[in-house]
């Protein structure tokens, strides 16, 4: 009569849960850095270009005038600098602090885009120039026209916004600054005290000479 063994047959172990996709983390990190840096560069460069042009009536003629982005609004450039600082700070903080900095990065991009878009049709800067040129505080600019640079600036702000959204979504997986640059209060290991030299041991004499010490000098 045959007997059935009661020993359970070993089952293959379930595969361990894989760690976060490092390749995906590197891609999101590279994309965030590229978008943030490119967006800030675009905003800073485009905000220095001519945004609006017009003519002010002076005497019997017309005086051509123009205003760049800084004349219209300095907010996009300022927010671009804030975005750059936040982009760098993302790697200096962890956990909830990283989320806060990533949120600041996204908000700076959104603010830069909105302020540039609103400034695309603004004529206050040219009206002020016309008032100064004519000496008439009620003077306004005529033949007003706008360039595409405000919209380029807004596009740069959107790039910063995308970098912030990537940091919010994947920032927890991104690396932080090396721990050797941080002070956590942990005492550093002390070096073992140097063993006293034995003048009767030739190897101790050679080691002392290698260290530049005089083995004949008494301690």
UniProtKB/TrEMBL annotation:
Lineage, highest ranks first: Bacteria, Bacillati, Actinomycetota, Actinomycetes, Kitasatosporales
Transmembrane segments: 29-52, 72-92, 99-118, 148-168
Domain of life (superkingdom): Bacteria
NCBIfam families: trp_oprn_chp
Protein name, as recorded: TIGR02234 family membrane protein
Keyword Membrane: yes
Biased composition (Basic and acidic residues): 195-219
Entry keyword set: Membrane, Transmembrane, Transmembrane helix
Disordered, as annotated region: 178-219
């Amino acid at each position: 009569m045959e007997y059935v063994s009661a020993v359970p047959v070993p089952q293959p172990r379930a595969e361990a849960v894989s760690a976060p996709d490092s390749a995906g983390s590197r891609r999101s990190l590279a994309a965030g850095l590229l978008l943030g840096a490119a967006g800030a560069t675009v905003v800073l460069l485009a905000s220095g270009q001519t945004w609006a042009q017009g003519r002010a009536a002076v005497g019997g003629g017309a005086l051509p005038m123009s205003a760049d982005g800084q004349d219209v609004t300095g907010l996009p450039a300022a927010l671009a600098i804030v975005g750059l600082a936040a982009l760098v700070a993302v790697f200096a903080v962890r956990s909830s602090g990283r989320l806060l900095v990533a949120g600041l990065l996204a908000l700076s991009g959104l603010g830069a885009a909105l302020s540039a878009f609103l400034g695309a049709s603004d004529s206050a800067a040219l009206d002020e120039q016309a008032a100064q040129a004519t000496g008439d505080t009620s003077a306004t600019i005529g033949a007003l026209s706008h360039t595409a640079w405000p919209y380029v600036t807004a596009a740069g702000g959107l790039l910063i916004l995308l970098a912030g959204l990537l940091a919010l979504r994947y920032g927890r997986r991104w690396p932080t600054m090396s721990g050797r640059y941080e002070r956590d209060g942990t005492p550093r290991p002390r070096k073992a005290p140097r063993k006293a030299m034995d003048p009767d041991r030739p190897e101790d004499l050679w080691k002392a000479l290698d260290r530049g010490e005089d083995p004949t000098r008494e301690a």
